[in-house]
Amino acid sequence: MSADSMRASDGEGGRPWLRYLALVLVALVMLYPLIWLIGASFKSNSEIFTEVGFWPQRFDFSAYAKGWKTSTEYTFATYFLNSFLITIPRIVVTVISCLLVAYAFARFEFWGRKLLFSIMVGTMMLPLIVLRLPQYLVFRELGWLDSYLPLIVPSAFATDTFFVFMLVQFLKGIPRDMEEAAQIDGCNALQLLWHIIVPLLKPAIVSVIVFQFIWTMNDFMGPLIYLASVEKYPVSLALKMSIGATEEVEWANVIAISVVALIPSVAVFFAAQKHFIEGATSSGVKG
Amino acid sequence: MAKLSLKKIEKVYPNGFKAVHGVDLEVRDGEFMVFVGPSGCAKSTLLRMIAGLESITAGELHIGNQLVNQLAPKQRGIAMVFQNYALYPHMTVYDNLAFGLKLAGTPKAEVQLRVRHAAGLLEMEHLLERYPKQLSGGQAQRVAVGRAIVKKPEVFLFDEPLSNLDAKLRAAMRVRLTELHRTLRESGQPATVVYVTHDQVEAMTMGERICVLKDGVIQQVDTPTALYDRPANAFVASFIGSPEMNIVKAKILPHEDGVGVELGGQVLRLPAARAAQLNSRGGAVQLGLRPEHVSAGPRPQGDSVPVPGTLRFVEHMGSEVFVHFTVGDLALSARVPADELHGLQNKTRGAAHEFHLQMQRVHLFDAESGESLLRSA
Questions:
Q1: Is residue A188 part of a domain?
Q2: Is the ipTM of this complex over 0.85?
Q3: In terms of Cα–Cα distance, which of B271, B272, B258, B275 is closest to B300?
Q4: N or C: which end of chain B has fewer CB within 10 A?
């Protein structure tokens, strides 16, 4: 080893705190809005608009209680339940449909496969807003307005093309001979999918679940367009509603409930973290 | 166990490439058959066609007495061992072995019995609870073989199963697989085996018969010794045997006492026995002579004839030495026991030395087609 490279490696090994300091600073900058949000949930309106720091003068949980009750006849428990009633079925149908479609694209030879795949990837580039109007008209004809069906059913047809695309890439990383071995062991196509491919794709499927959960929980436009009755509102709409149009807004209540609304997504992310990180960093299995 | 019969088997890919050209082959009941050939000779394709992983374009494939062209892999009564083992990473060794049986609805007690039996045969009872990533290469290979054994298939298919192992382990596994084949035969469960390899040493040591393939065409099917002693053409001659057979341009000429061969400017007498096999043919030929039939010693052996050579270099292999030299403009090699070098080790590159060719062991091939010109004795 030359003297130069010795010095370089010494420098790296000798001052790890410098790197950690830089990382902590960047992390703080990224996390500050969230930290401020939590701090602000304990503040009064005047405090929010006058104080610069995030540390509240006192810890008062009343904003959480008030925010939870809402100004409507329903509490946030209803809205959370509604959110889950949309999110969970949607995740189930997304995983099933995207997996089947990705499996077909990655493993079967059929007429027009390449063309269909490029069309599918093409739809990823399409702005969602373009689809809103025709979709609305279709769902109105079906009589599905003011129900959760328009928010769930499209996902049952693998319309979340990003997930299909992601799963196809993962599938391509799985060596074929494992599937051939399973074929010789007596698997048909669906048994192969269930017994061999699904376990191997677990990290990717967890990624799909996490993404779909967070995106659906955060979706504002969909529920806004299709849902009319307040009792069916999910959290995202209820939050907007709590910023009243006329009377003065109690910001602490809104902020407190925003913090609560973040909890499910954060919890799902951390619960899935181990698999999710694996999915994000490794595409495929050891041969 | 069952015999395997291939009749005019062909494979044409959708892009028009013809990989397998009308292969005819019978693999006998309980036989260990090796497919060998260089990369791209379609040996693996042929194996995958037998397994049902590739479709058969034309011809008939029978396993036992059943035509299986259109049958799915699981209906063919075969088991296959893959080059990369292809173990299921999310299952324990036990589950890897039991998976096929469970799918077939085998009763649990029977599954357990068969898995334990296979594990016993391969000495891997202690590995049953492990996951594939906790296994070494050799252990994973044994599990892959075990997975084939538990199914009690009619035919075992091996696709270069040892090529991912290091040289030492490969030699050990070679012996183990050969022993396993004998053990299964003795225990009344004889196994018909088709084994694909590109390694001629594996082919020679393991196969009861060897099928040499080139560009999707069978070159010769015979026992290892027959292939070695009586290659049907120059390709088989050069492919089988290590170091490779010397194959050089030569010319058949009349000689004062019979038939002579002109080789690098030297005219050498062909022994009467070889000359008789030649059908009085003359002109340009390819002459083949295995390196062990060339000696560096001064004493002629039997029908050996001396030729003056120019030393190129010497490779020491321990007990023996490979000597590379030229005769005229032809490059030849000799395989000489280390204690019969006769001073060669002290000679420098370019030095002259007299070598002896055992002319009764020469092979003669057609200059164009490479077909053997010797009628089998």
A1: yes
A2: no
A3: B271
A4: C
